[in-house]
Amino acid sequence: MKTLYKVPGAVTDCPTTYCPGCPHGVAHRIIGELLDEMQLTRKTVIVWPVGCSVFGYYFIDTDAVEAAHGRACAMATGIKRTHPESFVITYQGDGDLASIGIAETIHAAARGERICVIYVNNGNYGMTGGQMAPTTLLGQVTTTSPYGREAHANGFPLKVPEMLAVIDGPVYIARASLDSPKHIIQAKKFIKKAFKVQVNDLGFSLVELISSCPTNWKMTPEESLERIRKQVLPVFPIGELKVDEGVA
Predict the structure, then answer these.
(1) Which domains are seen in the chain, by residue range?
(2) How far, CA to CA in Å, does 69 sit from each of 93, 95, 101, 197, 216?
């Protein structure tokens, strides 16, 4: 029989702690495939901060460190500067990166730190009970916005890639989605470009991955993916927002 697919060597056989239907596992698979294909696994350090992926070091077989909530880019900066031969990734959620960690993210980008940020946006604080995040859509009901997010009280959804794309430091900024096979294939292409940025020592890169959260959205996995297509992507359109010269 012909083998059509095998689990990437960088991905462990440890059962994950994610809810049924959560796309974090898809993101892990993409990262694992690329680490294998680009022969980066043994030199990679992933910074896992607080969030749904807090136990990510069990699921992807690389060197890893745990960062305090929001401090992943700061920790990754220190690792990359002291071990420049390492391939350094942060894997962060929207509550972590876009709220408590927004300062660390912006300044790491502005300095052009040679790190790659994978940013999973599911529109809420998934691990701690589904509270409103900076990326929560207007009108979206969460445990801390029971009547829906209101612009005059809570502001508008924060679009991190658009913010970073106007800063000089970043070299590659993109947004992808994990809602369909077509978009997952595109996400892998974007992340590969981001990885190449660091391999070629060009500067800072970030790829946002639009994700669902069936548990806190109180939807089936299928319904949550449809919500991404109908409600989330019109607010957070996918595509490459910044591609500097030299990015393959």
Answers:
(1) 24-243 (3.40.50.970)
(2) 10, 9, 7, 26, 20
